Structure to design on (137 residues):
């Protein structure tokens, strides 16, 4: 498994998403209330750009006439046919046994863990002779 640095945390505030192409795979990274999740940007139903759909919540009912709206901003709705998937797990709410959006693990790591250094640039000696700038290779 190859690690990919996506962005500084500040560039992806809560409630936003970032679209990427990683090794030929369209992936979206979501910040849901300070937690980060990755989903393949392809609906398993018919291949729409799933992650371009609206973020919604989940309507649940335990008794007739009582509806509770939960998981606000944690469900993505496919822009083509309205299929809904949990961003945290990729689970489908339309047909959970047959369809699941591919989820990718996303971590937040300190910069010192992902940036290797110190970097050293190649230097070339430069001198000035009789008003001419000369580079020695």
């Amino acid at each position: 498994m190859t690690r990919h640095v996506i962005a500084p945390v500040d560039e992806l505030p809560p409630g936003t998403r970032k679209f990427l192409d990683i090794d030929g795979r369209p992936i979206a990274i979501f910040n849901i209330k300070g937690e980060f999740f990755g989903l393949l940007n392809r609906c398993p139903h018919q291949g729409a750009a799933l992650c371009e759909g609206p973020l919604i919540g989940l309507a649940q009912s335990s008794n007739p006439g009582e509806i509770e709206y939960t998981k606000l901003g944690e469900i993505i709705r496919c822009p083509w046919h309205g299929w809904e998937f949990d961003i945290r797990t990729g689970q489908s709410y339309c047909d959970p046994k047959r369809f699941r959006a591919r989820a990718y693990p996303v971590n937040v790591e300190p910069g010192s863990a992902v940036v290797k250094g110190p970097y050293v640039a190649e230097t070339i000696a430069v001198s000035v002779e009789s008003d001419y700038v000369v580079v020695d290779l």
Notes: The mean pLDDT is 88. The chain has one helix and nine strands.
